[in-house]
Amino acid sequence: MSQFAAELCHGILTARQASEEALASGHPYEANLHRARLADLMEVAARHGVDTSTVIEPALWRELAEDGAAFAG
Q1: DSSP state letter for 54
Q2: Which backbone phi and psi does 39 adopt, to 5 degrees?
Q3: Are 22 and 34 a contacting pair, CB within 8 Å?
Q4: Comparing C-alpha atoms, which of 46, 42, 39 is closest to residue 69?
């Protein structure tokens, strides 16, 4: 794995964990901000062909896509 891919995967994991922690702490707005960052990082990964299957489940991909559709509409 390249340094770029490794840093991107680390950022994805960090954003995901921060979102989950914020939600568990009762901070939904903060969780949403982290989730938006997660979606941005996932988009970058997809554009550059970085495999994220080891750091994120397909179900979360679908949730992020639904979030994006909600924000667009």
Answers
A1: T
A2: -60, -40
A3: yes
A4: 39
Q: What angle do CA 54, 71, 61 make, to 5 degrees?
A: 15
3-state class (DSSP) for residue 50 = coil
Residue 44 pLDDT greater than 50, yes or no: yes
Distance CA 14, CA 18 (A): 6
Query: pTM (2 decimals)?
Result: 0.81
Residue 50's contacts (CB-CB under 8 Å, 6 or more residues apart) are: 4, 5, 8, 9, 44
Amino acid at 68: G
Instruction: Copy the structure tokens of residue 67.
Output: 């979030």
8-12, 22-26, 53-57, 61-65: range with lowest mean pLDDT:
61-65
